[in-house]
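Complex record, two chains
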Amino acid sequence: MPTGTPGSMRPPVRTFRGSQHLDFEIPSWGAAPTVGLKTTVPGVTTCLNNRRAAGGVVTFSLTANLLASSATVTFSSSDNWYEVNLSGMVVDPMPAAAAAALVLKLPHAPFGLRSRLLREAFELSTKATPSLTWDATIRIQQGATLSLVVAANYALFTGVEDSGSLPGASSALAPGTDLIHGKIHFDRWPSAVIFLSFTPSGGTMVTQPIFFSSGLGVPRPEPAFIEVPKLCKLRQLTW
Amino acid sequence: MALDVQVITGSGALVAARLCNFPTGKTTLLGSHVAWLDSAVRSAVTGLPNPWVDLRGYASHLGFAQHPGGLGNTALNKQLSFARCEAVKARIVSYGSKVSFPMEWAVGDAESSGTMLNDDGYWRAVDVYAYATPPPTPIPPPPVPVPPTSTAVGTFQVDLIGWIPQPEVDNPLALLPSFITSLLPAGMADPFFGGG
């Protein structure tokens, strides 16, 4: 955070970014999955002094604060599917950074008091800033039938969620009639995409999007805080 | 008149028959006896491991009638029935197999019916029971080792990326692997990240 406000700086344009990755191998159907890489990476929030198209440059950037994350995969013998659960909580770093900058500008504040004020300002501003959260559930099942009970728990494709019709996307991740299905609940995060990649034993990797929400049709510049939270259905794939 | 060879069923033996009509007071095998022994008993005791034959000899009451004091002589009839067993045994031994004779029972005329002058051919007889150990159950050959095949289903990767689309910021798609961005519909990416 700069100690002074650049004269050319305009109100920061903020972008939240975060990504989560999980890969796992299924040794044989029903066996415990072997989890490989599991990461959750908070994005970078940047501030520009103008629109990039108008020649704006980044004045500073901050990494978002990752408050919590989890990525698990388990086998359910009763449902005969592997269930992947991805979740995370990321908070905008700008309010906390701005509060900290404000404390640092307090004149004549004793050092001990200043450090406490810094901590309090950080915690308060963080708590006051809505967190960006997501909870995704992906089920990789054996069998071509999706029970009515499970299907009823998936909302229809509606509103700003565009997963229902992705031009060019295939409905098959691999030859077969088994199903992959799921849902995502995301909050203050109008644009998100989930890709599922599958590398069959001895085969080559195939990747398909199973979720895409563009944030279309919502007011700007703060669309996220109006339309969400939202529960969306993932694209159903066969494999 | 009894048949020379009366097949015995239900005994559990491989083959069994009662060889009747031995000549009175004699141990001579009839031709029909020899024929049955050489066919049925020979195949039973030479084709299988551990063969054995049980013999049970009989005599009619008349028995050694011509023998001095033989009429109705239980001891002599017992001896006669044993000698008939021995005659059958000698024939079976001639087959050359290692057959054993664990039971060779001289009944004599103890079970014979009729009067002391009865000479029914049914009682001038030897029961023959031929056994052998059933062939061992062949041990199934060990399964042909099959090279292990991979039963792995495969590997899954899940990538979740989120952003707030604003044209003024860095193109968030630049953060994504190229194989993912290539899958995004072009029309969807441009309105939001065109400034990149």
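Note: Helices of chain A lie at 94-104, 111-128, 148-152, 224-227.
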